[in-house]
Design goal:
single chain, 8-stranded mixed beta sheet, 5 helices, 364 residues
């Protein structure tokens, strides 16, 4: 649209208000420039939806809006919404649905009223073949075509809102997800979209990030799930980190180290780092693993002979047993016989009377 502003009839009460812009074909949209009626703020609370196919107004509730104006007191009279990398769509809806709408208040602030003066949609239709187009296929990988970065300021003395669908607005020395400007800007304004947080906040040689490809541009509250690479174990830090408003990640960088033994065994281990708790666990483990030697089977088998029912074993056992017993008894008997024989010989020897003995006898 270009020319005079067109708005919702303010004579009645409207439960909802909307505008629908249809493109001739699917397009890769990079920028939307919305200009509302100057010096009015009753358009606050509106939503912007982009869809690939036509949908009725009731069906908008199933879609995710690309933008929602939440500033009730100072909504942007001109809102410039950037889409880094582009967003596919054919239908664009500007939708307003204030609860408990009434047309009896001054300025229709509680009524659903949209005053739209101009809508610009910047992008390329899918059937564009001109290589000179600023967003043709040979530039499809660029985050944002240079020709889209500059926008005309319709009303320099009114509120101007700069929005990045993903990432943060980079304008002069300002860096925010959404930037409301109230200064007197003339002619045109140029800004770009950058990641709200750095993407390289981890060691890619030891750590993987699961959803790095989910975000074309990182915005505040976007989060990453980290996992350790195969052959590495988690040492410290945080495996889930959230992008914060100050441009930093929550928590600490996850640290993964190479495993010295198979990680499958370490996965189920509960590592204890407190020395007091560790010593207590060691003492409990010692008591649990203590063994009574007298109850061991090895100790008990020392006093038990194993049964062997084979005939050869029985014969050998009998032969050895009888032989050992016979040998022992025979040895004892032989020793006794020799002792008895020696005593008997001693008794049969005649007494010898010596000369000295006889002389002693004669003297007496």
């Amino acid at each position: 649209m270009n020319g005079d502003c067109a708005g919702t009839n303010v004579d009645g009460t409207h439960k909802q208000a909307w505008w629908n812009i249809s493109l001739p074909d699917l397009a890769n949209i990079y920028k939307i420039n919305l200009m509302f009626r100057e010096k009015y703020i009753r358009h606050y609370g509106y939503y912007v939806f982009i869809n690939k196919e036509d949908i009725n107004i009731e069906g908008l509730a199933s879609l995710t809006p690309v933008y929602h104006e939440e500033n009730e007191k100072h909504p942007g009279v001109q809102n410039i919404i950037m889409f880094p990398g582009g967003i596919q769509g054919k239908q664009m809806y500007i939708y307003q649905n204030k609860s408990n709408a009434t047309g009896e208040d001054s300025g229709d602030l509680k009524n659903n009223v949209l005053d739209i003066c101009e809508v610009e949609i910047w992008g390329c239709l899918n059937y564009t073949e001109n290589v000179n187009c600023t967003c043709s296929r040979n530039e499809s990988d660029s985050p944002l075509p240079e020709a889209m970065l500059s926008s005309i300021v319709a009303w320099p003395n009114n509120n101007l809102t700069l929005i990045c669908h993903q990432g943060n607005v980079k304008f002069q020395d300002k860096f925010k997800p959404k930037l409301d400007l109230t200064h007197n800007y003339q002619n045109d304004i140029s800004f770009t979209c950058l990641d709200a947080c750095p993407k390289d906040a981890y060691n890619a040689t030891t750590t993987d990030v699961e959803n790095s490809g989910q975000f074309m541009r990182l915005s505040v509250d976007d989060y990453f799930n980290y996992t350790c690479k195969i052959g590495h174990r988690f040492e410290s830090g945080n495996l889930i980190r959230i992008c914060q408003e100050n441009g930093s990640w929550s928590g600490e960088e996850p640290i993964c180290k190479r495993c010295k033994c198979p990680c499958e065994r370490l996965a189920s281990q509960n590592f204890i780092k407190d020395p007091i708790v560790l010593q207590k666990r060691i003492e409990e483990t010692k008591k649990f693993l203590a063994v009574n030697r007298s109850e061991l089977s090895a100790f008990q088998r020392k006093k038990i002979s194993s049964y062997d029912g084979r005939a050869s074993s029985t014969g050998i056992g009998m032969t050895l047993g009888v032989g050992v017993i016979t040998f022992v008894i025979g040895t004892i008997i032989c020793c006794d016989l020799l002792t008895c024989k020696a005593k008997k010989r001693k008794k049969n020897v005649p007494k010898r009377v010596t000369l000295r003995t006889r002389w002693n006898t004669l003297q007496n």
